[in-house]
Amino acid sequence: MDTTLPRKRSFAEKFKSFFSGSKKAAFNGEFFDDCCDALIEGDIGPKTALGLIEAVQKNAGRFQSEQDVLLALKSLLVTLVRPVDFVVEPGKTTVFLVLGVNGAGKTTTIAKLAGKYRAAGLDPVIAASDTFRAAAIDQLKIHGERLGVRVVAHQNGADPGAVIFDAAAAVAARGGGLVLADTAGRLHNKENLLRELQKIDRICASKADEGRYKKILVIDATTGQNAFRQAETFHQALGVDGLVLTKWDSTSKGGALFPIGKELGIPVFRVCFGEGYDDIAPFDPEAYADEFLGLSG
Ligand code: GDP
Closest Cα to atom 26, ligand 1: which residue? Predict the structure, then answer.
């Protein structure tokens, strides 16, 4: 899959503004304070931003140009995030449990993944297991029809575990395959939601083949620092194997993956940048850092 991402402008434009006007910025304390602010405004949390700037500032004497500063930042940023891919093999039962708060982009991401795995010759089954939202069930059925992918659904209000159970049975009956399971995301009812998810977690673990159950958290790039808190909450409760960052196209910021990578160490599975089925790509740390810093041209 292509890993090209749309351009990101926020940090780059702010950074360039330090150099515009009559006075060229000196690489002094004030300059690095401004850099730190620009990183924070780009959704890199204050703690991570400060750590980065302190590290970069140590080399201030060696910087000849603004490009040198950007490259120094980039070399640190790429160490904070790492990609992950999950192998899906015919003949094995793989379960992707897709987690995230409502509106993050779970349904859309499931459809995109279903389309990609189907195009790759695998035959995924979608489990419409957010049974709290009739709209989510209907939406997945529509995607399934469009994509030619089977959707296992029960009535609104049914036991989500039972839906996943049936989807896994459908896959097992074919001799293996991929289950893409949706989940509820009512984080305002956090305790109940997390308890419910832990129950589902046990069912998924029992249905997937060894090492083939992956918990994928969808986070919305437009939610800034909230994305970090969501990652922390889900990771503590369930252990997240990989992230999908959605709506990269809808924000001029988008640096949230850096503090999540640094503090929580969760790798990144995919980045989504639009509502179309093809607006999804494997995560490329270099491309992500380049786009964030505006280094890509
Ligand atoms: P869910 O509640 O987590 O299942 O979220 P949905 O999949 O329903 O997505 C919520 C909204 O975000 C919908 O309007 C989607 O079309 C939109 N959406 C999802 N992913 C992306 C993306 O990568 N870019 C953009 N621009 N919109 C997205």
Answer: 274
Q: Which residues line ligand 1 (CB under 6 A)?
A: 100, 102-108, 136, 185, 246-247, 249-250, 272-275, 279
Domain count, the chain: 2
Question: Do 86 and 241 touch, CB atoms closer than 8 A?
Answer: yes
- Backbone phi, then psi, for 218, in 5-degree steps? -95, 125
* Residue 138 CA: distances (Å) to CA of 113, 162, 185, 187: 18, 18, 16, 21
Task: Specify whether 71 is located in the same domain as 170.
Answer: no
Q: For residue range 201-258, list pLDDT tens digits in order.
A: 999 999 999 999 999 999 999 998 899 999 999 999 999 999 999 999 988 788 999 9
pLDDT in tens, 243-256: 999 999 988 788 99
Note whether 143 and 221 are same-domain residues. Answer: yes
The model's pTM? 0.93
Phi, psi of 281 (to 5 degrees): -145, 155
